[in-house]
Design goal:
The chain is of the alpha/beta class and about 210 residues long. It has helices spanning about 10-15, 15-25, 40-50, 55-80, 110-120, 155-160, 175-185, 195-200; strands at about 1-5, 30-35, 80-85, 95-100, 125-130, 135, 145-150, 150, 185-190, 210. One of its GO terms (biological process) is UDP biosynthetic process.
C-alpha cells in the first residue's frame, strides 16, 4: 500500500522536531509514502523578493514552486530518501519514501497530493496541519467551534463555500477535493503525526476524516 502525506511549509518550519519524528516513524510503518512539501516562509520571502524585481504572476508562482522543491530536496537528503521534481500525475515508486514539491503554477500542495495519490494508487492523503482537524466554524473567529471527526466532501464544500480558506482552518483545495471524490481517496486532516499509523491500522484518529463514503 502507498499513502500520500501533504506536508505544508508552515508545518515544516514551525514543527521541525515533529517533521524529524515523522520520517523516523515512516520507516517503521509497513507502507510506502509519497511526501509533498509546501514552500512555507522561505517561499513567501522569495515571492516578495521577486515582486521587488517586478516579476509577473506566472514567474512568482514558479519561484514558489522552486522553494517547495528546495524544501523537498533538503528533506530527502537528510533522511536518505528518493527525491523527484517530476509530474505528480506520473510518479512511480521505487523505494519506501519519495519526496517532491509543487509542479505547475496555480496548483496547490493539495492538488499535487491528489494527483500523486492517483498515480501511485493511494487511497489516503494525510494533510498535516497546524490545526487539529476540520471545524464546523472558523476557530479564529468563534469560540464555540466543534471538531468534525468525519465528514464528506459535499459538507466540506458547504463549510468553505467552494473556496480554499487561508490559514488552514477549513482545509482542502476544491480541485484537489474533486480529484479525491472521483477516485475515492480519503483525506485525513490532523496535527498529530501518530494519526498516520492509527489510520493505517484501522484505529480511531484524533483529527478529521474527509471521505466519499457514507
Amino acid at each position: 500500500m502507498t499513502a500520500v502525506i501533504s506536508l505544508g511549509g508552515s508545518f515544516l518550519f514551525d514543527k521541525t522536531d515533529e517533521t524529524y519524528k515523522i520520517f523516523k516513524e515512516l520507516k517503521n510503518i509497513d507502507s510506502k509514502f509519497v511526501v509533498i512539501t509546501g514552500g512555507g516562509p522561505i517561499a513567501r520571502e522569495y515571492i516578495d523578493f521577486g515582486k521587488a524585481f517586478k516579476l509577473g504572476e506566472k514567474e512568482l508562482h514558479q519561484v514558489g514552486i522552486k522553494c517547495t522543491h528546495l524544501n523537498a530536496f533538503v528533506i530527502a537528503k537528510s533522511f536518505n530518501t528518493d527525491y523527484t521534481d517530476k509530474d505528480p500525475r506520473k510518479l512511480k515508486m521505487k523505494n519506501k519514501i519519495l519526496v517532491t514539491g509543487g509542479y505547475l503554477p496555480g496548483w496547490t500542495t493539495d492538488t499535487c497530493s491528489a494527483y500523486a495519490a492517483v498515480s501511485t494508487k493511494s487511497k489516503v492523503i494525510f494533510n498535516l496541519s497546524k490545526e487539529k482537524g476540520v471545524y464546523d466554524k472558523d476557530p479564529r473567529k468563534f469560540k464555540d467551534v466543534k471538531l468534525l471527526k468525519k465528514i464528506d466532501f459535499n459538507r466540506l464544500y458547504g463549510l468553505t463555500k467552494g473556496k480554499r480558506i487561508p490559514g488552514m482552518n477549513f482545509i482542502f483545495d476544491p480541485l484537489a477535493a474533486k480529484i479525491c471524490m472521483k477516485n475515492k481517496i480519503d483525506v485525513i486532516v490532523t496535527n498529530d503525526i501518530k494519526d498516520i499509523d492509527r489510520y493505517l491500522k484501522n484505529q480511531e484518529i484524533q483529527g478529521t476524516i474527509i471521505t466519499c463514503k457514507k
